[in-house]
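### Sample
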Amino acid sequence: MPSCLLFLLFISGFPSSTAFNLTTLTFSRSFSPLFSDFNIKTSHHDKAVSLLLNRLSGSGIISSDYYNYGFFSASIKMPSRYTAGIVVAFYASNVDTFEKNHDELDIEFLGNVKGHAWRFQTNVYGNGSVSRGREERYRLWFDPSKVFHRYSILWTPFNIIFYVDEIPIRHVGRHAGMQGDYPSKPMSVYATIWDASSWATDGGKRKVDYRHEPFIAEFRDLVLQGCVVDPIDQLPSSNCTAEIAALMALDYSTITAHRRKSMQWFRQKYMYYSYCYDNVRYPVPPPECTDVPLEREMLSNGGRRTEGKVSGRRGKGGERRSKAAKHQTAR
């Protein structure tokens, strides 16, 4: 039986996306252009936006507000055909306000050569901790360029959960040992597509091929939930008490026993790099890491899958790119 069918059977009892009870927003109400507005196309009903990458530039959008914790979500469809060197990102950050000590929560999709699947990674950075790095990388059980799937980031004072559709794929609980590395300052929400030829595919060996331009990433069903704040407001966070309480009361703000089983299945099947098991970078695992014996066994090659543990080619974890590159043109 195909693995994708097995997976669908496995999650057949899992709550549908409607269980999230999401209120979607129009583009003009929730976002504005970040760069290269000539490569940003909105739908006629203002409920969807397409970001283009061509030989002139990539493109990006930014939320109209900053949020002190929140739930950020979008249904996304990736570019198709040859996508090597391309990165599509959906993330929260405050780098534009706190340049030297910014926080960031990333979902980054990494393109590939024709016939090879998209991959993606999640990153957690707090207080400028990009040099320490908290990256994980995964494959998907579907082709993200064929149909829309929902990708979400839940961020509370106590935990961070990344979702693909209704499936939690990563949970980071706040640990006292993280200190300022746990993201805690107000963040904007971004979506971008850009040329990452220097690192995104086979360590930079495969570049963007502009004979296939334009590359189009489509976003719809935009969701921004949280407490809207002034990022440099000096008032204590208690002014968001009610909104944070409402956020934490959401069904998807916790990992139930059923969701934990789904998350463990996904990670054991599709995760191919985790910093928690990278004993080269971290001889002592970071404090928030929880040792899972099955994960440790499958990621015994310096945090990477050993040969024969995953289908397809092995990826390389721990690679990092300059955030400023998101705002650069392809030339």
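The chain has a mean pLDDT of 87. This sample (Xyloglucan endotransglucosylase/hydrolase) is used throughout the tutorial notebook.
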